[in-house]
Amino acid sequence: MKKIILEGPDLAGKTTLINELLKIKKFNNSLVIKNNFIPKNYEEHTKLVDKYFDLLVFSSKLFSYDYIFFDRLFLSEVVYGKLLRNYDCSKEEKLLNLIKSDIYEKIILLLPPLETLENRWNIRGDSRINKNQLKEMYNLYKELKTFIPKEKLILLEDTNEYLIRALGNDL
User: Is the pLDDT of residue 138 over 90?
Assistant: First the structure.
């Protein structure tokens, strides 16, 4: 079983990409776990990191799928901790160990151009962030590239069909 984590700013296209991947025969036997929970304080954050670890470790024992796609997981906490709670968890040992661990195969980081996010925000809006926070959120996600081991990172700045088909072969 391969565990693939999709991360990226709100409106980047994570769910859309997963839906496109699921159309590929190779991914017919897949599970998608979506995380939209954003902690309100440090205590909730700590519990959430523990739950992420448990979910990654025990998902192999609980499910018999070829792939599990996580639609956002622990890296978002680095961004939203700073953005929404003014809390920098990027140096927390527990979180850093989770990022460097072998309990997942790949992290797909979606980073479309900021202009794309702004256009999508104008059309759909967002329940977590306001338009003024888009650029800061985008820049924080760009910084995440430095946290992810290179051998585990797939950076996507475009989600066209060719890329989705090619990506299917990389997983």
Answer: yes
